[in-house]
Amino acid sequence: MIALIRYTLATTIHGQRYLAPVLLFCAGVGISSGSDSGPLPGVYALNSGILLVCATWLTMAVISVEDPTHRAITVVAARGPVKVLAATIAVSALFAVGLTIIGLGLPLLMNPRPITAADLPAGALAHLLCASLGLAVGLLCSRLVIRRQGYALLTALALVTAALLTTGSPPNTLFKGMANTNKATDVLPTAAALLPIGLAVLAVAAVITHVISIRRD
């Protein structure tokens, strides 16, 4: 499994399709971090929203690195599609964790703000929640599920927009709490409670993607 993850990561880096979402995230975080945009929880909420978009794009890019023929060869070599899909999710998660570190650290470097013991944990949980949901949307909108790229893009945009703007959704609930408080301790319990929901959504999306891809293959 480790060898398959290394292969997927090397193929992704060689294909360079990860560059656009990574650069978009760095640019967005740089803009939010460099301005006087208020307390740290609000900045982390904004960065998490950017991560949701970029994690979706990254996951779709990682899956699209190999064309169907090469993917079929990889599936045979790996002795099953489950391992290939798991490696894809693992590589996408590695990129998302790297972006999370940037999203947490850059605001502290570019525009020093007062920081409390709860700021980083709350920010990390918000980023991980959005990363999980972004991976889930990316899986469901990848070519394993939606073959036509135009439809996949429109579906991804609709799902990401709904996740960010729909009242009561996990990201929207957390963002409102973080934007309306100066103390991360007020939202830390909410962030901790919402993260398992994001992980559960990712697990369900992985199962759906696997079932649909198997039937189509």
What's the arrangement of secondary structure elements?
Elements: H1 2-15, H2 19-34, H3 40-64, H4 68-78, H5 81-110, H6 119-140, H7 149-165, H8 170-179, H9 188-216
Shape: elongated
Number of domains: 1
Q: What is the strand content? A: under 5%
End-to-end separation: 22 Å
By secondary-structure content and strand pairing, the structural class works out as: mainly alpha
Rg is: 18 Å
Number of helices: 9
Mean pLDDT: 88
- In this structure, how is the largest beta sheet organized? none
Poorly predicted runs: none
Share in helix: over 70%
Number of beta-strand segments: 0
Order of helices and strands: HHHHHHHHH
Commentary on this structure:
- The protein has helices at 2-15, 19-34, 40-64, 68-78, 81-110, 119-140, 149-165, 170-179, 188-216.
- It has 217 residues and is mainly alpha-helical.
- It has one domain.
- α2 (19-34) runs parallel beside α5 (81-110) and α3 (40-64) runs antiparallel to α8 (170-179).
- The mean pLDDT is 88.
